[in-house]
């Protein structure tokens, strides 16, 4: 069982930056990802990192967001630059048991955090 806790959300103006963190209860090489859900919309993949370090990004965030883990493999990060109002959503961290690639599919992951709110104003 893995417990995930997100932090780092907040309110920023368009063009600003935020870094989200996801603390995992155990260290591992699990593949992990960031997802987001805006009111009235389905949850969507933002960025994922595989067990070997490969990364995948949604087209809408490529060049602006960076996903990475700390060396101890207990914390996942999402560096978000040049934020836009359309990035406003609740952001969730997710993890999957086992060795796997960087997959941006909601149904792929076993464990989910409670989410952290990001609000970008124009």
Description:
By secondary structure, the chain is mainly β. It is built from no helices and eleven strands. A hairpin with a 5-residue loop joins strand 7 (65-69) and strand 8. The protein is globular, with a radius of gyration of 13 Å.
Structure at a glance:
This protein is 0% helix and 48% strand. By secondary structure, the protein is mainly β.
Separation of the first and last Cα atoms? 40 Å
The DSSP helix count reads 0
Helix amount, in percent?
A: under 10%
| Structural class determined from secondary elements | mainly beta
Main beta sheet: 7 strands, mixed
Number-wise, the strands total 11
State mean pLDDT (0 to 100 scale).
Answer: 95
Ranges where pLDDT stays below 50 over 5 or more residues in a row are: none
H and E order: EEEEEEEEEEE
How does the overall form come out from the CA principal axes? globular
Radius of gyration: 13 Å
Beta-strand content: over 45%
Features:
122 residues, mainly beta, 7-stranded mixed β-sheet, 4-stranded antiparallel β-sheet, 0% helix, globular
Q: What's the SSE blueprint?
A:
Blueprint: E1 4-7, E2 10-13, E3 18-24, E4 31-37, E5 44-49, E6 55-57, E7 65-69, E8 75-80, E9 89-96, E10 111-112, E11 116-121
Parallel strand pairs: 2-11
Antiparallel strand pairs: 1-3, 3-8, 4-5, 4-9, 5-6, 7-8, 9-10, 9-11
């Amino acid at each position: 069982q893995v417990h995930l806790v997100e932090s780092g959300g907040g309110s920023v103006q368009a063009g600003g930056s935020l870094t989200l963190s996801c603390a995992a209860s155990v260290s591992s090489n699990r593949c992990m990802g960031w997802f987001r859900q805006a009111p009235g919309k389905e949850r969507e993949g933002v960025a994922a990192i595989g067990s070997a370090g490969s990364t995948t990004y949604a087209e809408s965030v490529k060049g602006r967001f960076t996903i990475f883990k700390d060396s101890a493999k207990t914390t996942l990060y999402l560096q978000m630059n040049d934020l836009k109002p359309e990035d406003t959503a609740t952001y969730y961290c997710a993890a999957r048991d086992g060795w796997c690639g960087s997959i941006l599919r909601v149904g792929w992951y076993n464990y989910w955090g409670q989410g952290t709110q990001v609000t970008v104003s124009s």
